[in-house]
């Protein structure tokens, strides 16, 4: 079945129910409040979706953290669609839109044990920019990418 990529154009709060279903299928032990508590408070949210046969199969959600910084907060691909370059394509679209909107940097935090996500970021121009331990004592790698400016 064909895979499509789309930018969510409405309020992100209106995407909460299908997004929650997607998060539950992507992240083991997902806590609904993790998404719902923040979803309505994001500044300039940018939500990109992957759809297949009318069903959402992946997403990438970022938001503004300063004049020139897009923070890429949460994302993932349904298990059955992994390893086919879908997350890579989603990231390219997110970065292209960010650059076109004047952002100069993208930053993200990933648990240190999440090799697939850290490698994907490295393959797409991110550098390691820091390391911290989160509230649960889990190591988190901070990665940052400078975006190439788009031509006017
Ligand atoms: C991380 C994740 C988004 C990758 O999605 P994906 O569509 O399978 O990734 P892609 O097929 O686009 O892979 C692109 C690159 O990422 C890296 N990568 C992806 N999966 C990998 C794996 N299992 N092991 C090692 N590297 C991996 C590779 O560099 C790969 O490029 P290559 O195939 O040329 O080697 C997916 O595994 C996922 O949804 N994981 C659970 C959710 C998550 O961890 N989200 C991030 C934290 S919010």
From TrEMBL:
Q: PROSITE patterns this protein is in?
A: GNAT
The protein's UniProt keywords, in alphabetical order, are: Transferase
The reply on keyword Transferase is yes
Report the domain of life of the source organism: Bacteria
Q: Which intervals hold domain N-acetyltransferase?
A: 1-147
Provide a Gene Ontology MF annotation, just one.
acyltransferase activity, transferring groups other than amino-acyl groups
UniProt-listed CDD domains: NAT_SF
Pfam families reported in the protein's UniProt record: Acetyltransf_1
Quick check: keyword Nucleus in the entry?
no
Q: Tell me the protein's name.
A: GNAT family N-acetyltransferase
Organism equals: Sphingomonas psychrotolerans
Taxonomic path: Bacteria, Pseudomonadati, Pseudomonadota, Alphaproteobacteria, Sphingomonadales
């Amino acid at each position: 079945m064909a895979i499509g990529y789309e930018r969510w154009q409405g309020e992100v709060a209106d995407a909460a129910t299908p997004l929650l279903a997607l998060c539950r299928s992507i992240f083991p032990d997902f806590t609904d409040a993790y998404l719902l508590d923040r979803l309505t408070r994001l500044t300039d949210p940018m939500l990109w979706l992957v759809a297949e046969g009318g069903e959402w199969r992946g997403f990438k959600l970022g938001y503004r953290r300063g004049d020139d910084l897009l923070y890429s907060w949460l994302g993932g691909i349904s298990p059955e669609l992994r390893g086919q370059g879908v997350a890579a394509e989603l990231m390219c679209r997110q970065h292209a839109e960010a650059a076109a909107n004047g952002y100069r940097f993208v930053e993200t935090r990933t648990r240190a044990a999440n090799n697939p996500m850290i490698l994907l970021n490295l393959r797409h121009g991110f550098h390691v920019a820091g390391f911290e331990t989160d509230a649960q004592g889990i190591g988190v790698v901070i990665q940052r990418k400078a975006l190439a400016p788009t031509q006017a």
